[in-house]
């Protein structure tokens, strides 16, 4: 018995299967290699920090790629780029994509994979001759990494809440360049791109990303259904002392900013295991990633030492306790009030993705894995933050992961098997096509 009008979901799933089956492994690999050439390093990594000349050149490359696929291109006030494939009806689009900026020493896939797999979904839909009910947009968010200008995920957080942009524009990088200046230069470079409003309604958002951790590889599973993202907080600890001569100043009378900073750092590293709370509760992860010393001279006692603290945990209460401990440690090692200051400049609570989205993604991953004779997907939480953590405040959102070799990322050695990159793009194509067909 044939059903004249198949129910929307069955119809949407049929479209999704066709989209999945038209993903091109070679086309994806070629686009990944092409984007990696913007900032490619001698060690095989990629250095393409946000809004640098290298990043602007990569943005232009993505605009050209998207236009060649028939997409229209938009840019918003935070420089987020949107590559749009029209749908039968002008409904809120399904959004996918990620970020194209990298760490100072990054890899080929962190962020870039999600943007290019999104464009590969467009190519697959074109190849299959599929017209979806809804438009589909592939986004390349500005400044996800937060390494040049903190905090991270500036573009996606400003898209969701535009009032945040004003504060972001004043943030300066290590050379004193303000985010607003770099952003205005990027907007000027994209003068041929239509300006689009921020906070536009989206039907749903799916971000594909490398795991950047060891879980999927350890389980020998090629696809992960991401259920949520752990909380993150970033702090700047500034220690002030008195610059003085390294040779003539007796130890007993020194006011050494480095001595205070090192004592604080040692106490912080000691608190991490303690704040991992009781066994079986989520680990507290602590990183003191960036240090600056003034005057940074071998024979002058440091007068100023500033370092950053990155704290992560799935349990926000554990982060509350760790933050209180951080502040107490700083007071304890300050030789005078205000000699040590703590500024929190990034704070994102844990993110939990909706079950309805997870089910769709699970179906997409299972079909791709089954067709490839690979293990079925597993569910996991993300140790890294992603733009999806803000989109989750805006529309139904979820993520798909593929494995990272050795769990390595934010490192030139970041790598993922081509077969896994292909499966991830197939799962994305299914998910996006199904969501855009209902
Ligand atoms: O730091 C993060 O979690 C992200 O990779 N930028
Ligand atoms: Mn990333
Ligand atoms: Mn990253």
From TrEMBL:
Short name of one Pfam family for this protein? M20_dimer
> Which residues are involved in binding Zn(2+) 1?
99, 110, 209
| Domain Peptidase M20 dimerisation positions | 232-334
Annotated SUPFAM superfamilies: Bacterial exopeptidase dimerisation domain, Zn-dependent exopeptidases
Tell me the InterPro entries matching this sequence. Amidase_Cbmase, Bact_exopeptidase_dim_dom, Peptidase_M20, Peptidase_M20_dimer
Enzyme kind, highest EC tier: hydrolase
**Essential cofactor(s):** Zn(2+)
Q: How is the cofactor bound?
A: Binds 2 Zn(2+) ions per subunit.
Amino-acid positions noted as binding Zn(2+) 2 in the UniProt annotation, renumbered to this chain: 110, 145, 410
Sorted keywords for this record are: Hydrolase, Metal-binding, Zinc
The GO terms describing molecular function are:
hydrolase activity, acting on carbon-nitrogen (but not peptide) bonds, in linear amidines; metal ion binding
Give the Enzyme Commission number.
3.5.1.-
The text of the family note is: Belongs to the peptidase M20 family.
PANTHER family xrefs: ALLANTOATE AMIDOHYDROLASE, ALLANTOATE DEIMINASE-RELATED
Name of this chain's protein: Acetylornithine deacetylase/Succinyl-diaminopimelate desuccinylase or related deacylase
The organism encoding this protein is Cupriavidus necator (strain ATCC 17699 / DSM 428 / KCTC 22496 / NCIMB 10442 / H16 / Stanier 337)
């Amino acid at each position: 018995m044939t059903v004249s009008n198949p129910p929307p979901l069955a119809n949407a799933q049929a479209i999704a299967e066709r989209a999945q089956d038209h993903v091109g492994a070679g086309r994806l690999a070629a686009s990944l290699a092409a984007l990696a050439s913007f900032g490619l390093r001698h060690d095989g990594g990629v250095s393409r920090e946000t809004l640098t000349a290298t990043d602007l050149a990569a943005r232009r490359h993505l605009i050209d790629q998207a236009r060649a696929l028939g997409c229209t291109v938009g840019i918003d006030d935070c420089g987020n780029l949107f590559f749009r494939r029209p749908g039968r009806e002008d409904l809120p689009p399904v959004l996918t994509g990620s970020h194209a900026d990298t760490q100072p020493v990054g890899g080929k896939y962190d962020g870039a994979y999600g943007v290019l797999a999104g464009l590969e979904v467009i190519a697959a839909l074109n190849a299959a001759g599929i017209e979806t009910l809804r438009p589909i947009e592939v986004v390349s968010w500005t400044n996800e990494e937060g390494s040049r200008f903190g905090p991270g995920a500036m573009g996606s957080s400003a898209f969701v809440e535009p009032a945040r942009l004003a504060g972001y524009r004043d943030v300066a990088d290590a050379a004193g360049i303000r985010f607003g200046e770099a952003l205005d230069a990027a907007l000027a470079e994209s003068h041929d791109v239509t300006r689009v409003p921020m906070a536009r309604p989206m039907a749903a958002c799916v971000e594909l990303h490398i795991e950047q951790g060891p879980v999927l590889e350890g389980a020998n599973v090629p696809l992960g259904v991401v259920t949520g993202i752990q909380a993150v907080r970033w702090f700047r600890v500034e220690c002030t002392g008195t610059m003085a001569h390294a040779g003539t100043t007796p130890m007993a009378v020194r006011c050494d900013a480095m001595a205070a900073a090192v004592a604080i750092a040692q106490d912080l590293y000691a608190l991490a295991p303690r704040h991992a709370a009781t066994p079986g509760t989520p680990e507290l992860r602590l990183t003191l990633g960036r240090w600056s010393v003034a005057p940074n001279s071998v024979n002058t006692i440091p007068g100023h030492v500033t370092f950053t603290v990155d704290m992560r945990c799935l349990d926000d209460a554990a982060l509350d306790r760790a933050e209180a401990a951080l502040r107490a440690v700083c007071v304890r090692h300050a030789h005078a009030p205000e000699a040590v200051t703590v500024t929190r400049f990034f704070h994102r609570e844990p993110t939990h993705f909706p079950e309805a989205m997870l089910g769709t993604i699970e179906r997409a991953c299972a079909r791709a894995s089954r067709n490839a004779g690979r293990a079925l997907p597993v569910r996991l939480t993300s140790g890294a933050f992603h733009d999806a953590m803000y989109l989750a405040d805006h529309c139904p959102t979820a993520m798909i992961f593929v494995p990272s070799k050795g769990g390595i990322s934010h490192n030139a050695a970041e790598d993922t098997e081509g077969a896994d990159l292909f499966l991830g793009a197939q799962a994305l194509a299914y998910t996006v096509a199904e969501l855009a067909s209902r």
